[in-house]
Amino acid sequence: MKLNNSFIQSLAILVMLAELPQGTALKSQEISQRMDVSPTYLLKIAKKLKDAGLINSSASKNGGYTIKKDIRTISFLEVFEAVEENDTFLDKLDLNPIHNMFLSEKIVHEQELVVKNILLAAETEYKQTLAQHFVDEIAPKDASGKTLEINWKQIISEK
């Protein structure tokens, strides 16, 4: 389990879509252009966000992506689980060095269990922290505390 660029890019996509004026959608090429990422890579991320029920996708002349859920209700954990691998801290972990540290099999198994328990506790805390924070926390706000409305279509077309 680790954070990849797709997690940060997903947060950026969600904030961009939340800032759009009502009834406005962004096409994948517009988002990828603004974020300076490959259109193919962006499509993969957007599909994961759509499959997780975080964004809508509409294929039409005026279609594109829109936010589906209020960003005040989308936790960092929800985004993480949507776009990152579902490996745990213990997946792909080679514990064989512990076997070489001790001569007694009993001690090996005891210490291996200690390591596993520490890592499982760390993973639980990690996910609990992500669950306590929401996308809204990183969205720019106006003086009244509302998410800024930004016409990304216009900004992107002026580039």
Automatic annotation (TrEMBL):
Which ranges of the sequence are coiled-coil? none
Q: Which InterPro entries match?
A: Tscrpt_reg_Rrf2, WH-like_DNA-bd_sf, WH_DNA-bd_sf
Q: Where in the sequence is the signal peptide annotated? A: none
Q: What's a Pfam family in this record?
A: Rrf2
Q: Quote one Gene Ontology molecular function term.
A: DNA-binding transcription factor activity
Q: List the GO cellular component terms.
A: cytosol
Give the protein's recorded name.
Answer: Rrf2 family transcriptional regulator
> What is the species of this protein?
Enterococcus termitis
Q: What is the lineage of its organism?
A: Bacteria, Bacillati, Bacillota, Bacilli, Lactobacillales
